[in-house]
Structures are given as structure tokens and as C-alpha cells.
């Protein structure tokens, strides 16, 4: 079985839900506590043993490439000032030379198209795909557990979580067949079904391990929902030929592409940080207790 060595991060979306900030800052560079959203996702990939990072970027996303490069002047200044802790933090996050690649999606034609843009950099091997606006909080990273399942089953793996059964129309939903190892076999996939037509309430939550045959399918994939080339449409075709398995992630997921999810992520990750958690907790409590009367009344 081929090892999962490479991870694709599609970061070419327009991020319209975060305008006006995303006029000038990619949403993946918005900070959760003190590091950009994309750093959390890269950390998760590294924890899973990923060796090579592939970013599919777009216009206005150059700052992502800069972020993963060494800032020589900054390093020199920190060295002169004896800032050892800061230097070692930067060093620990720095991808080694030649282990990060960037390609451009020239127009935001959809997630399926963004993934297809990575085909030459991935080559003919199975790969991880992580949607960078979904960040996950768990002792064991979601992708690490998916790689473990992949080593048991082969095929294609999707992370899934359970949604409110009345809200299946917001997600890509999978059908759950028998349990296999630490996961289950997927026997159907439907994009945004009505509650009555949904095969389950397990939704695809932004992490994938895919076989390279997906690229041939995406090459000729026509536009689907939202007039975009949809990854789910491509996966449906692949599922007719190859096995798909679900890994049920039970940690917390934050959709940092939405304002509520992004703010929640900031609070949740701040409360996970030993250096600031107590102060943040006290400040939040004080804030909530003294919030405008109508919210305070509702909270009682
Ligand atoms: P979203 O559906 O969140 O779209 O994309 P978006 O454009 O980023 O954000 P909104 O909805 O306008 O606020 C899901 C993921 O797919 C990537 C995005 O960067 C995001 O990580 N994507 C989407 C691309 O890379 N290219 C595309 O053409 C579309």
C-alpha cells in the first residue's frame, strides 16, 4: 500500500463571507489566537505524517507563500536581540526546503477544479486533502486517524460528522454501511439532500484521502451546483469504481469560513492554551455577565 505523503490545501476561494477583510487578506491568514488558520491545518497534516504540502492558491494569496517562507530580516533581528523562544517557534513551524509547493488556480471555478490543479504536483499516488477553513480540535488529529484507517482499508477515506437531521440540505451527506476497522463503508453520497431524502445525517467534514484516479475524473467534470466544478460530483463517479470509507470524527470542528465559526474557534483555542486560558476565561465570563441586558436575560 502506498503511503500518504502529500497533502493538498485548496486556498483559492474568494472568501466572500469575510468581506471586507478578504479584499486584502486571504481568509486562511486570519488569525486564531496568534497564528493563521492555515497553520492549524498544516499542523494537523504534519501530525499525520505528511511530508509534502501542496497549496492551490489564487490571486491575492501571495501572502500565504510568504508566510511559509523564511523571513531572513526578521530572523536576523530576532537573533541580534537574543529572542531565542521566538526563533525556535518560527523554526518549528518552518517547512523544510523543497517540502512546500504552490500552484495557482487561475479562476475560482470550484473546489473540484482547485483539486484538479494539484494533479501534477501530486502525481500518481493517493493523497490527503484538507479544506483549510475547517479547523479541528482533538487530542489526536483527524487526518492522523484517517491515515490509520486508510492503512487498514486502502481505498478512499472521508471524515464525517453528524449534523442535525433537519439540516442535511446544508451538507454533502454519506450513506453508512457496515463497520470496517475504525470506520465504516460508505454506500452513497448525496450533495445537500432534503431531510426526507438523506441516507443518514453523516456529513463530509473537510478531510479526505483520495486515490489519484480522481484527477482523470475531475479533468472532464462538468459544472454542478453553484455553477462550480464540484468535488462531490467527481467523488460520486469514483465511488462507482473504488471503495470509500468514513472516519467518524468526534472532536470539535470550526468552520472558519463563517463568522460565528471563526469567533468560536478563537475562543476554543484560546481556552486550550495554557499561557492565556485563565485570563481569557475570566475575561469572557465577565463579558458575558455584563453583556447587554437582553442577552443577559436570555442567558438566565
Ligand atoms: P468555500 O465554499 O468556503 O468558498 O470553499 P470560498 O470562496 O472560500 O468562501 P465563501 O463561500 O465565498 O465565503 C471551500 C474551500 O475550497 C476552496 C476554498 O479556498 C476553501 O478552502 N476553493 C473553493 C478553492 O480553492 N477554489 C474554488 O474555486 C472554490
Task: Tell me what you see in this structure.
The protein has 300 residues and is α/β, with parallel strands linked by helices. It folds into two domains: 6-257, Spore Coat Polysaccharide Biosynthesis Protein SpsA, Chain A, CATH 3.90.550.10; 258-300. 35% of the residues lie in helices and 24% in strands. The chain contains twelve helices and 13 strands. It has helices at residues 37-47, 62-67, 72-80, 84-93, 111-116, 119-122, 142-153, 213-219, 231-239, 259-270, 277-289, 293-299, and strands at residues 6-10, 31-32, 35-36, 52-57, 100-104, 127-130, 134-137, 156-162, 172-180, 183-191, 202-210, 244-248, 252-255. The strands form three sheets. It has a five-stranded mixed barrel with strand order 8-11-9-10-12. A hairpin with a 2-residue loop joins strand 9 and strand 10 (183-191). The chain is globular, with a radius of gyration of 20 Å. The model has no long low-confidence stretch (mean pLDDT 94). Bound molecules: uridine 5'-triphosphate.
Question: Which SSEs are present, and which pair or pack?
Answer:
Elements: E1 6-10, E2 31-32, E3 35-36, H1 37-47, E4 52-57, H2 62-67, H3 72-80, H4 84-93, E5 100-104, H5 111-116, H6 119-122, E6 127-130, E7 134-137, H7 142-153, E8 156-162, E9 172-180, E10 183-191, E11 202-210, H8 213-219, H9 231-239, E12 244-248, E13 252-255, H10 259-270, H11 277-289, H12 293-299
Parallel strand pairs: 1-4, 1-6, 4-5, 8-12
Antiparallel strand pairs: 2-3, 6-11, 7-13, 8-11, 9-10, 9-11, 10-12
Bound molecules: uridine 5'-triphosphate.
Residues 10-17, 56, 105, 108-111, 113-114, 131-133, 257 line the site of uridine 5'-triphosphate.
Amino acid at each position: 500500500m502506498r503511503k500518504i505523503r502529500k497533502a493538498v490545501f485548496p486556498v483559492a476561494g474568494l472568501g466572500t463571507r469575510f468581506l471586507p477583510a478578504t479584499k486584502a487578506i486571504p481568509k486562511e491568514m486570519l488569525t486564531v489566537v496568534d497564528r493563521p488558520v492555515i497553520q492549524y491545518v498544516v499542523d494537523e497534516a504534519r501530525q499525520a505524517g505528511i511530508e509534502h504540502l501542496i497549496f492551490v492558491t489564487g490571486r491575492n494569496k501571495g501572502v500565504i507563500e510568504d508566510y511559509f517562507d523564511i523571513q531572513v530580516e526578521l530572523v536576523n533581528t530576532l537573533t541580534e536581540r537574543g529572542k531565542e523562544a521566538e526563533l525556535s517557534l518560527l523554526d518549528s513551524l518552518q517547512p523544510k526546503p523543497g517540502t512546500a509547493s504552490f500552484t495557482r488556480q487561475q479562476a475560482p471555478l470550484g473546489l473540484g477544479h482547485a483539486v484538479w490543479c494539484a494533479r501534477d504536483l501530486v502525481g500518481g499516488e493517493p493523497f490527503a486533502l484538507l479544506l483549510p477553513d475547517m479547523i479541528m480540535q482533538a487530542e489526536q488529529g483527524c487526518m492522523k486517524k484517517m491515515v490509520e484507517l486508510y492503512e487498514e482499508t486502502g481505498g478512499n477515506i472521508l471524515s464525517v460528522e453528524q449534523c442535525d437531521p433537519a439540516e442535511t440540505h446544508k451538507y454533502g451527506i454519506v450513506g453508512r454501511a457496515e463497520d470496517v476497522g475504525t470506520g465504516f463503508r460508505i454506500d452513497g453520497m448525496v450533495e445537500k439532500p432534503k431531510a426526507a431524502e438523506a441516507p443518514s445525517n453523516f456529513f463530509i467534514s473537510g478531510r479526505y484521502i483520495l486515490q489519484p484516479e480522481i484527477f482523470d475524473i475531475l479533468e472532464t467534470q462538468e459544472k454542478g451546483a453553484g455553477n462550480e466544478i464540484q468535488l462531490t460530483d467527481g467523488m460520486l463517479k469514483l465511488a462507482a469504481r473504488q471503495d470509500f470509507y468514513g472516519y467518524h470524527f468526534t472532536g470539535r470542528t470550526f468552520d472558519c469560513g463563517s463568522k460565528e465559526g471563526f469567533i468560536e474557534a478563537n475562543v476554543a483555542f484560546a481556552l486550550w492554551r495554557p499561557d492565556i486560558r485563565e485570563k481569557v476565561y475570566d475575561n469572557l465570563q465577565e463579558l458575558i455577565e455584563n453583556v447587554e441586558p437582553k442577552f443577559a436575560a436570555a442567558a438566565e
